[in-house]
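As promised in the previous annual report, we have extended the structural survey to additional targets. Below is the entry for Protein O-mannosyl-transferase 1.
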Amino acid sequence: MLGCLKNPVVVTVEINMNLVALTVIGLISRLWGLSYPRAVVFDEVYYGQFVSLYMKRIFFVDDSGPPFGHMLLALGGYLGGFDGNFLWNRIGAEYSMNVPVWSLRLLPALAGALCVPLAYQILVELQFSHCAALGAALLILLENSLITQSRFMLLESILIFFILLAVLSYLKFYNLQRDSFFSGSWWFWLLLTGVACSCAVGVKYMGLFTYMLLLTIAGVHFWHMIGDRNLSNVSLMCHFLARGLALVIIPVAVYLSFFYVHLTFLYRSGPHDQIMTSAFQASLEGGLARITQGQPLEVAYGSQITLRNVLGKPVQCWLHSHTNTYPIRYENGRGSSHQQQVTCYPFKDVNNWWIVKDPGTQQLVVSNPPRPVRHGHIVQLVHGITTRYLNTHDVAAPLSPHSQEVSCYIDYNISMPAQNLWRVEIVNRESDTDVWKTILSEVRFVHVNTSAVLKASGFFGASLPEWGYRQLEVVGEKLSKGFHQSMVWNVEEHRYGKSQEQKEREVELHSPTQMDISKNLSFMAKFTELQWKILTLKNEDTEHKYSSSALDWITMDTNIAYWLHPTSGAQIHLLGNVVTWASASVAALVYTCLSLWYLIRRRRKIYDIPEDAWQLWVAAGGICVGGWAVNYLPFFLMEKTLFLYHYLPALTFQILLIPIVLQHLGNHLCSSLLLKSMFSALVVAWFSSVYLVHRTFSPVTYGEPSLSVTELKDLRWKDSWNILIQKQ
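The corresponding structure token record, generated without further manual editing, is:
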């Protein structure tokens, strides 16, 4: 038992000094002078708003992507003690003393710094030499655009970090599976692949492209495993399930967890609530929740309600009426019914209240016990203030002549009888006996006489003219024209009416609701709604001074001015290393041409390189060329404002390809010692030029030192670059 104590316990640690040195230099390059400039830099004005909302626990929706990246930026603010009090309204605005600039920029800078050792390890795992791996890491280290993007409160460096981490994790997993199936390290790298992919998607949806690439590569590798007769059916099934768990199920679970944390932290009402449904708004503290908390759940005959249109775009609006009537004749000469106007009004107002009436009685109060309204029931909707009935008939609507006019009926004692019966249809019902519920039920009103559906059509055209106070048009739309969300309504505010007399009822309608039942959405219901809003909500794209096309990126015909000092002329630009960008494009072209040449020759049974070198070449292309393609080509299909920084993930993969092509050329195309020596000298000269260009553009990468007008003009290597020259 004590024999083991006779010898000392020895722990052997292998330290890759290349990796340590690259990590340290990467940290220095990204963290040096991180608080400079102490002013809002370009898109910090955009992301900073969300950080402030996180600090104040106020709900928001960002249509640019999921919340994980914003949470990481907010974590930096939390670690620095940021209270969220800063007005993010202008690029170049000086930060107040309560803003922890260094802390807010820390996580993007760390992510950018760690991309340097990740690049080194990826090439090592691809079975290339340490010299090639070192070259890839140094190219990432000296790439000016990656430095600039990682030194501010922006998301691209975090996205690239998780993309590279996912690629590295999968390569380590793949290399391990040759020797040790289902070992601890095998599971670790496989699971980390899935988690890193989920994090990449959680930062920006661009990460989805790399995730799909890795899933495709994993599928190809598993397809090859199926052909291995040494593996039993049980073993293959275990491999399949392990990959399904790690690369599909766990990433989905991690992605959901981002939204769970997001919705848990942001529980307060804010300026973005209005695009969400009434049920979602009511689940937040403050705002609509203060109004709707404790309302009756079931709508009954005699209920007083406001009806909000579910579509909510471009603005939310409520069914509304007022004493004014439609003009006898419109400007185009068409006539109207001259009945009381019904509109959709984008503000809360006492004229938004309606009473649900049973057509069989004259009672406008809720009975005891209440009689709930169910799917399929026939109701009349009485305008609370004017007591006129919601009506539609075969008269053309003012702005939509192919649809029916909707009005509140006035009896002019002419041959135009009231047509005010509506059938309640609950769109999201679970059964045909469902009760109409406050906030939760989405309903449409089908006119009994004409089968027209009550619809807010003003979302699709101009507002009503001055006679309609520029409010949105409401029409009766034939069911034959198809279903649309603008036909769906939900009860937002609700009370049980108690006053039969009109004067008392008007007082009741002006008073706030105070009832007994609260409603909460499940997490999955809130997630589904928020995810749908993120995917479908699009801000109006406008041309930006620094926007560009995807074709401009390859040759870097564009730049972005991130910051300009108001007096000294010091400035920061998103500009890449010209030599690196040109070399990356050439490397991709050389790889493509060589691959086609090899394929044609192999088809003729001519093998120019050994089989193991060919497999290495193909695997490297699958990662690097594939990574470039999936992160670049989709932008040609996107209808959005594009900027140069969108190219950085694709560029990163292209940079990794440069040393791969160089090593391949040196090993297989330089046959003689003289050629190898000349090639090595050219590579050294080329790399020296990369470093010189990096140093030349460092002043506009870091923002210091400030340059003279002449020096700034000298940096304008392309006429399309917008280098800012201040007038003397």
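The chain has two domains: 34-261+576-669, 296-511. The two ends are 86 Å apart (CA to CA). These points will be discussed at the next consortium meeting with the crystallography subgroup.
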